[in-house]
Amino acid sequence: MTWPRSDPYTIQSSSTMNLAPRMASYVILISLSVVWFLSNMSFAKAQEYFPPAESQGGWRTLADPDELRKLAGVDPEKLAELKEWLLTSDSRNFAAVVIRNGYVVLEVERGNSAKTDDRRVASVSKAVCATVLAIASEQSQQGLTPHRMKFEDPAFDFLPWAKPLSDPRKADITVKQLLNHTSGICPEAVGAKNDGSWEYVLGLSGDPKTSNLAFDPGTACGYSSHALCHASLVCETVTGKPYDQVAIESLFKPIGCEHWWFQFYDGGETIGRHPSHGLGMPARGLARIAYCMLRQGRWENKQVIPSWFVEQTALATHEVKGQEMRFKRNAQSFSHGWELPALVNNTVGEIPNDARYKPGSGGQLIAFVPSLDLVIARQTGSSGPWEYEEYVRRACAAVLRR
Fold first, then answer.
1. Which fold has domain 124-397?
2. pTM of this prediction?
3. Residue 402 in this model has a pLDDT that exceeds 80
4. In this structure, what DSSP letter does residue 189 have?
């Protein structure tokens, strides 16, 4: 039957007549899609893995070449090459671990135990401190702490021990500037020692290197251990608890860490003794922190690290361009305590842009790469330079590309 083309109402009737079976088909397709989606969500949830504590069995591991390829999606030959490189890259004792799809696919130990050896991890502790401070900030926004704090807040509002300020510009420093090395507080480039009394660290000892800012806050990038020491005290004021207690209760225990220690600084009668951000932890413990970041801050059914923090660490958290003062690295590679290896001496594509890491003196490292479902860690307890980005590059190269 042919409908007159000049009769729009008749044409509408034709469309209406065909609409019912067509709509029925759409409903069936949508229903099937929803079922497929929910089934896959359930499968993904069932497949999601979080390792029990080491005392309860620890990480699942793979060693068989076929299983490494099939379950973890890694190249056994490149893992073997990475192991050889780790053993010859320096002469330090160390423990290193590479985790892909939740499986330990490589673990190399020389003198140090990846499970129990909690030697000092140097500047890796900066990423840990920033992560703990993010947890404290999130708790404060939920009204769970004595004081509310956001990373954009003035840091010295939470540092009563530093009053009176040794430099009036300190009043302009934000919390996040303590974490991304743009505060101006005693950059390591000025040659001041990293450790000392709290009076020295807070600029109250009379030493101009710690008393005076090296630059106006937010105008340059100067790698600063002292700034992270300030951050540990900010955490104490916000939560009403010492930094180490917050880290243990809010991060370490919820994700199954079992071995750690913290560095403390002494102060005079007014300031007293407090933990700094420095700590020691085994390689597998560091891997747990990175794995929690990899899982958007979740551990099993709990949001341990706020997801906003994980997201923000994917980019620089400041506007400073050019080079950092000490290491002469791209200033844009510094985020909230964590750093961006793809912006550091990287051949395009070898290290994915979403990778985050934190190197520490002595060949120590914590890293995660969301796009590769990859976690990397190394602990030595030592000091000195090392090829940090090469470790990340080689670990990424071991992942099989589809």
1. Beta-lactamase (3.40.710)
2. 0.88
3. no
4. G
Please state, as a whole number, how many other Cβ atoms lie within 10 Å of the Cβ of residue 219: 12
| Residue 239 to residue 136: CA distance in whole angstroms | 7
Kindly report, residue by residue over 131-168, the tens digit of the pLDDT. 999 999 999 999 999 999 999 999 999 999 999 999 99
Contacts of 398 (CB under 8 A, 6+ apart): 74, 75, 78, 79, 82, 98, 100, 105, 106
> Distance between CA atoms of 260 and 116, rounded to whole angstroms?
9
Decide which of 47 and 262 is more confident.
Answer: 262
How far apart are the C-alpha atoms of 243 and 228, rounded to whole Å?
12
- State mean pLDDT over 85-99: 98
CA dist 352 and 349 (Å) reads 6
pLDDT at 31 over 50: no
CA dist 388 → 129, 185, 201, 245, 367 (Å): 20, 26, 28, 30, 10
Residue 27 near residue 35 (C-beta atoms within 8 A) = no
Long-range contacts of 316-322 (CB under 8 A, 24+ apart): 316/180, 316/340, 317/151, 317/176, 317/179, 317/180, 318/176, 318/177, 318/180, 318/182, 318/218, 318/221, 319/218, 320/182, 320/218, 320/219, 320/220, 320/221, 322/220, 322/221
Mention every residue, 6+ apart, whose C-beta is less than 8 A from residue 26. Answer: none
